[in-house]
Amino acid sequence: MKVFITILLAALLCLDQGSEQKETKSADESREEDYDYKDNDDDEEDDDEVEIKHIPYEGSLECYTCESESIEEHCNKIKTCAPSQTFCKTIITRGNADSNYLTTFSAWCSDTCKEATKIIEGTHVTVNCCQSDMCNPLLVDGKASDTNAKANCGGILTGVGVTTLFMLLCSWLGRDL
Amino acid sequence: MKGKALLLVVLGLWFQSLNMSSGGVAAAASNRRRGNEDFGDIESKFALRTPEEITEDRCHLVPGDINSVADCNFNHSSKTFVVIHGWTVTGMYESWVPKLVGALFKREPDSNVIVVDWLTRAQQHYPVSAGYTKLVGQDVAKFINWLAEQFNYPLENVHLLGYSLGAHAAGIAGSLTNKKVNRITGLDPAGPNFEYAEATSRLSPDDADFVDVLHTFTRGSPGRSIGIQKPVGHVDIYPNGGFFQPGCNLFDAINQIATKGLGDMDQLVKCSHERSIHLFIDSLLNEENPSKAYRCSSKEAFDKGLCLSCRKNRCNNMGYEINKVRAKRSSKMYLKTRSQMPYKVFHYQVKLHFLGTESVTQTNQVLLLSLYGTIAESEEISVTLPEMSTNQTYSFLIYTEIDLGELLMVKLQWKSDSFFSWSDWWSNTGFGIQKIRVKAGETQKKVVFCSREKISHLKKGKEPVVFVKCYDKSLSKKAV
């Protein structure tokens, strides 16, 4: 029974964490740190002008969002997309990086998306597109599928979560381990 | 040897005539009385060409002679292009005339294409011919007014295209018609005698409902340059900065003499000047892929990649498919082109931010950049940065001749100063780079490329570093 409670607590905690992240991230886009551009020009401003802080509305798409993370890092930030952004996009890159072989992963809300696979100078680049909430989790085999990721509370517990859930199920059935 | 001498002679004549500018204009104009309503004083001839006969003037429309219009099969329900040539050494039509006529018919098969023949006036000394543009403009205006009055032909259907001196003749014609014509396209309007002229005696925005101008050969001091430097239309486009066009340098000229002989001599001398026509022809023939030009405060700002915006009409199509944007003050627009047809290129702004713990500054450094897209990859693009300093961001423009599709990856290398440089070998000059930001002008997309290891180290004379797309965004809803 103790085990059951701990697992439940863990599950609750992780759910909580998930929703928190969602709140903070939905505020404004990863408002790319604006450098002090040396060649500033009046034309620079229009990049930012477009980025109107949007209020999440019923039916806003939610996507995992991260920039070039390795498999170990877990892409677990969730972002509410702007109305025009109807795709969750992921790019998986496999191949030798500057020092060693790496698999890296980027994910974001996008207004256009076209699936593609290309090998560029020995590096394998795959673009995946999907259009349902959190449909772009980082999966170990390097393929983002359409699994409903809401159930397993983010990418954190994809590995641990499955076993936990299994244990949860077992205890639910009253068979104390 | 003979060829070189001939080239020099022609060049000499050309420049001499340009420099002899001021005098003759007024005299030439005052020699003739301003015409009455009769058409007796019209010296220019108006040949209606057909898709079958794009080279020869077989049928002339004669102002005052109603039958001539029917005889030439003028189509009253179609639009009309009026092509006005410029100054000529030979007294003959130049080879671009049939090319432009053919392209106009290809794009608008039912249209009327009229070529204005003012060759006798156009083969005088340049200043004399320049003065004649007033009379040619009057001739053209009388002809157009007659078409409008006699046949109720709508002037909204009239598009004048003038090259060099012909552009100013078109402007004067437009200022004298009873109602404004739809459009005047000025193809590198002549500079000498016109750079400082009043708006009434040259091409200006008031001469038509819409005036668009291509400036392709404005090298030299103002008033001396073959093409006019200042903007004279609603939209003024300066391809490749407007000074000079790719593929037009002396080396290319010698190369062409070697392969094609001296037949096209006059073409070589005016390569950049005439490029304006070929850019327009390109826009007629390559309907689906118009080249885009971008509004910018200066050529220098454009070359830094700072002007690839399409918001608020800041970009426009070059040539036939231009959007009729009339800004309060005329706007200069820029783009890069290839050296031959199709001229379209794809523009990108690249922004780099150099990180480092100790402050380093290097000057005149060469970076090699390759872009990889879903369709193709670019060649290695060489960029010279006047300065590279720690914790500074630099922006520059690059362009590719082919469509790469959606960008996926960028490769960046820092060239060493010389082939084998001891200083590069020993020192470990380098900067950290986290991200490369790229803005694509043609697709109006902003793309961020991330280092695969959070931060990559760009070292002088060492291996290239690779950045993979990690974010993208469309800048405008209209973008394709």
From TrEMBL, chain A:
Subcellular location: Cell membrane
CC terms in the record's Gene Ontology section: plasma membrane
Molecular function as annotated in GO: acetylcholine receptor inhibitor activity; chylomicron binding; lipase binding
Biased segments, Acidic residues type: 30-49
Keyword Cell membrane set for record: yes
Signal peptide positions on this chain: 1-21
Coiled-coil annotated residue ranges, if any: none
Keywords for this protein: Cell membrane, Glycoprotein, Lipoprotein, Membrane, Signal, Transmembrane, Transmembrane helix
Residues annotated as domain UPAR/Ly6: 61-149
Annotated region described as Disordered, given as residue ranges: 19-49
Stretches with biased composition (Basic and acidic residues): 19-29
PANTHER family: GLYCOSYLPHOSPHATIDYLINOSITOL-ANCHORED HIGH DENSITY LIPOPROTEIN-BINDING PROTEIN 1, UPAR/LY6 DOMAIN-CONTAINING PROTEIN
Listed name of the protein: Glycosylphosphatidylinositol-anchored high density lipoprotein-binding protein 1
Species assigned in the record: Phascolarctos cinereus (Koala)
Gene that produces this protein: GPIHBP1
From TrEMBL, chain B:
Keywords: Calcium, Cell membrane, Chylomicron, Disulfide bond, Extracellular matrix, Glycoprotein, Heparin-binding, Hydrolase, Lipid degradation, Lipid metabolism, Lipoprotein, Membrane, Metal-binding, Nitration, Secreted, Signal, VLDL
Catalytic activity, reaction form: a triacylglycerol + H2O = a diacylglycerol + a fatty acid + H(+)
Domain PLAT: 346-469
GO biological process, one term: very-low-density lipoprotein particle remodeling
Signal peptide: 1-20
GO cellular component, one term: very-low-density lipoprotein particle
Binding site for Ca(2+): R202, D207
GO molecular function, a single term: heparin binding
Cited InterPro entries: AB_hydrolase_fold (IPR029058), Lipase (IPR013818), Lipase_LIPH (IPR016272), Lipase_N (IPR033906), Lipo_Lipase (IPR002330), PLAT/LH2_dom (IPR001024), PLAT/LH2_dom_sf (IPR036392), TAG_lipase (IPR000734)
Enzyme Commission identifier(s): 3.1.1.34
Membrane topology value: Peripheral membrane protein
Catalytic residues in the record: S164 (nucleophile), D188 (charge relay system), H273 (charge relay system)
PTM comment, free text: Tyrosine nitration after lipopolysaccharide (LPS) challenge down-regulates the lipase activity.
Enzyme's top EC category: hydrolase
Family per similarity comment: Belongs to the AB hydrolase superfamily. Lipase family.
PANTHER family named in the record: LIPASE, LIPOPROTEIN LIPASE
Function: Key enzyme in triglyceride metabolism. Catalyzes the hydrolysis of triglycerides from circulating chylomicrons and very low density lipoproteins (VLDL), and thereby plays an important role in lipid clearance from the blood stream, lipid utilization and storage. Mediates margination of triglyceride-rich lipoprotein particles in capillaries. Recruited to its site of action on the luminal surface of vascular endothelium by binding to GPIHBP1 and cell surface heparan sulfate proteoglycans.
Binding partners and assembly: Homodimer. Interacts with GPIHBP1 with 1:1 stoichiometry. Interacts with APOC2; the interaction activates LPL activity in the presence of lipids. Interaction with heparan sulfate proteoglycans is required to protect LPL against loss of activity. Associates with lipoprotein particles in blood plasma. Interacts with LMF1 and SEL1L; interaction with SEL1L is required to prevent aggregation of newly synthesized LPL in the endoplasmic reticulum (ER), and for normal export of LPL from the ER to the extracellular space.
Protein name in UniProt: Lipoprotein lipase
